[in-house]
Design a protein that fits this description.
11-stranded mixed beta sheet; alpha+beta
Length: 757
């Protein structure tokens, strides 16, 4: 078997790669007292990092480059910031993993070595991302073959072949395994080697469904001419394209030089095209910011997090700056800070009256400043829940102003009193504070003098949480009134566009509430309003912001369904980002288009004052654009094993196709399950969905491991708005429960979204 990894081939001779392959000692940092030297090196496959371990069992440990989300230079992680000295900044770096795995905090011998580790790892990660789907498949299969080759003789006997098939998630009976082995063992030596392994690989990765499609359109010397490809693109993919577009795809994806000269596409080139963004279910035109970003802030859905500081549950889990970094890196644009008096006069953030750990307010603001605009340039809203004394509030204001500097909005844009909220475009690179304010915004222009402090009512969410706590704890003194808090002028003055006020009904809000005043709604109240007064709620959201938050009873950090809130135009639908759940999958899908910038322009009918749209009672109007959505689930490729520790464990996959939108559109259908095949299961099952309001509909594909005795296990999923779906034969990437891409896995489907007859 070949020994060089595909990811490393294009880096051959690179000094940083050679440095990683040689390896070296790094100090692993867990605490002030636990800082130990360990040897780390990149293995020859250029895809696996090995490190020594002093555990009694499993002394040699590895992890895949695929598991790494990013590499952070310096003391950027909470652990390194807390447990190392500022003088060691140049020596430090952190490996951040996908799927919520704990960071690996490391210190090199000197700054130069640290730079080489960081540079080498980043090059390898970038290279891995550049691999096309076919190369990733080869990479994965070769790696699995290497693991199956137990005696490391670069040959594969029948026993090793069976072990390999289990590795790649195929359960086959002995007869099939033997037939496949004999077919490929052309030398009759009893082992597969060299070209025989290549033959075995070709047999294994043959895609019958692609053969059929390619065969239908390859009408020129057994290959696809530019005209044949154009015919396919127009007929099957329903794309408005020209022959020039077909020639561009041949130039881009055809690997065979002779075919490329003839302006032909071979089957390998065709498969390559289908596995790239042009062949993806997700419209590549929506990968970048393409919407109008000059509308007022309240005209957008805004990706929002609840109790952002928490890594786990709401009662005893850790609070961390890392939680803010992760949310911001996922495109979150509204984060929450629960602020309380801390020791030594420094305010802290934690979930009050619980055993969650505390994190310094100043550390959180520094982390937010560093990571706010790495994935999106559009504004970040800091939602303050303030429980601090006046003195510590003054310190909060000081930290916000001194750390965030000019990026903090401290007065209205322009020289005159505004009449509506500014746009995301106008607020690019800015921080907006949401919280209590003593007076009207006009005071910023007419120098109204106010006292140094004033009493205001506490945030609605804080009051709801206390009330919920009383229900759960009968020993707590019962209070029916909201508490008041003293508010410092310094903190009040930097609340400009998001002043928190209590909601007293839609009529009161219409008559008395200014455009910059916004209310927060507990999920149950918001859902009740959405169901009973959908049109009124939507009109309220046309010129004001609404924030929705989970019930205080969700102590496990579970989530509510955000879709009914979006259906009535609520913008800040705050979810527990740390909890992998269907609700977070929907949130990730909702904010996938528009460059995943965290802002999605609401449909026109949710922004037009004449609109009478009600998601629960559909009438004629511009929102009603009836469509028929045909979905054929054809096949899947390389589904991961659920129980990796159990060698004989093979998945029995099925696929669910769900529509999420207005109640009339919300439904799901599923395929039958296929026994013992996660490598290349094939269903060829067709479904039809009737869609009434396509602009609010999302489609979610879920692959599950069928279990007749218990709940099915989640294998992977993918969610996106129906308006971002491409027609035709498409590959669907799959994500883990936590929303990270499963590199080699995917679905193959055929889709047609058409006007209803």
């Amino acid at each position: 078997m070949e020994q060089n990894g595909t990811a490393g081939n294009s880096m051959e001779g690179d000094v940083d790669l050679q440095f990683l392959l040689t390896g070296g000692e790094l100090v692993k940092v867990r605490s002030r007292s636990w800082q130990k030297k360990r040897f780390y090196k990149l293995l020859e496959d250029c895809k696996t990092l090995w490190h020594e371990s002093h555990k009694t069992f499993n002394r040699n440990q590895t992890f895949s480059i695929d598991d790494i989300d990013s590499v952070r230079k310096g003391r950027q992680s909470e652990g390194l910031n807390k447990y190392t000295d500022p003088s060691e900044e140049e020596r430090c770096f952190s490996i951040i993993f996908k799927d919520g795995k704990k960071n690996l905090d490391l210190m090199a011998a000197n700054g130069e070595d640290a730079k080489r580790w960081i540079s080498g790892l980043e090059k390898i990660i970038t290279n891995m991302h550049k691999l096309n789907s076919q190369q990733k498949t080869e990479h994965w299969i070769i790696n699995s073959m290497r693991k199956a080759d137990r005696n490391e003789d670069n040959k594969m006997n029948l026993h090793e072949l069976k072990h390999f098939l289990r590795q790649i998630n195929i359960q086959v009976d002995d007869t099939y395994a033997e037939d496949l082995f004999n077919k490929c063992d052309t030398s009759k030596s009893g082992t597969l080697e060299g070209s025989e392994i290549k033959l075995f690989y070709d047999q294994l990765t043959q895609r019958q469904e692609i053969d059929v499609i390619y065969g239908k359109y390859a009408q020129t010397e057994g290959q696809m001419s530019a005209e044949d490809l154009l015919n396919f693109l127009q007929t099957e993919q329903r794309e408005m394209v020209t022959k020039e577009d077909a020639l561009r795809l041949i130039e881009k994806y055809e690997l065979d030089g002779t075919a490329k000269q003839k302006k032909h596409m071979t089957k390998d080139g065709f498969l390559m095209y289908l596995n790239q963004e042009e062949g993806s279910i997700f419209n590549p035109a929506h990968k970048h910011v393409y919407q109008d970003m000059s509308q007022p802030l309240n005209q957008y859905y805004i990706s929002s997090s609840h109790n952002t500081y928490l890594m786990e549950d709401q009662l005893k889990g850790p609070s961390s700056t890392e939680a803010y970094i992760r949310a911001l890196m996922k495109g979150c644009r509204c984060v929450e800070l629960d602020c309380w008096d801390g020791a030594n006069g420094e305010p802290v953030i934690y979930h009050g009256y619980t055993l969650t750990s505390k994190v310094l307010f100043i550390d959180v603001i520094k982390a937010i400043k560093d990571y706010a605009f790495k994935t999106s340039d559009y504004p970040v809203i800091l939602s303050l829940e303030n429980h601090c004394s006046v003195d510590q509030q003054k310190l909060m204001a000081h930290h916000l102003i001194s750390i965030l500097g000019d990026a903090l909005v401290t007065k209205p844009l322009g020289d005159t009193m505004p009449t509506h909220l500014p746009s995301p475009e106008e607020l690019k690179g800015k921080f907006v504070i949401k919280g209590k304010r003593m007076n009207k915004l006009d005071a910023a222009f007419n120098n109204d003098s106010i006292t140094e402090e004033e009493t205001v009512s506490e945030e609605d969410e804080a009051a709801d949480y206390k009330e919920n706590g009383q229900k759960d704890n009968p020993t707590k003194p019962q209070t029916t009134q909201k508490s008041n808090i003293k508010l410092a002028k310094e903190l009040s003055d930097i609340v400009i566009y998001c002043k928190s006020v209590h909601f007293n009904g839609f009529e009161h809000a219409k008559d008395k509430q200014s455009f910059y005043e916004m209310s927060s709604f507990k999920e149950s109240k918001a859902l009740n309003l959405a169901e009973t007064s959908g049109t009124a709620y939507m009109h309220h959201n046309m010129d004001k912001l609404s924030r929705i938050y989970p019930a205080g009873s969700r102590t496990d950090s579970s989530n509510y369904n955000p879709v009914p809130m979006w259906n009535v135009g609520c913008q800040i639908v705050a979810l527990n980002f740390q909890t992998p759940s269907e609700e977070m999958h929907l949130n990730q899908g909702r904010f996938l288009p528009n460059g995943a910038c965290g802002y999605i322009l609401k449909p026109e009918f949710q922004r037009s004052l004449s609109s009478q749209f009600d998601p629960n009672n559909l009438t004629e109007g511009p929102w009603l654009k009836k469509k028929t959505f045909h979905v054929m689930v054809i096949s899947a490729q390389q589904l991961p094993k659920i129980n990796k520790d159990k060698e004989s464990s093979i998945v029995d996959p099925l696929v669910k196709v769900e529509i999420h939108g207005v109640p009339a559109d919300t439904t799901s259908q599923k395929t039958h399950h296929i026994d013992n095949n996660g490598f290349n299961p094939m269903w060829n099952e067709q479904f039809q969905f009737d869609i009434h309001v396509p602009e609010l509909a999302m489609v979610r594909f879920v692959v599950e491991d069928y279990d007749k005795r218990s709940q099915n296990d989640h294998i992977g999923h993918y969610c996106l708005p129906l308006t971002s779906v491409q027609n035709g034969y498409r590959h669907v990437p799959l994500l883990t429960k936590r929303g990270d891409v499963i590199c080699t896995a995917g679905l193959f489907v055929h889709l047609i979204l058409m006007d209803a007859q």
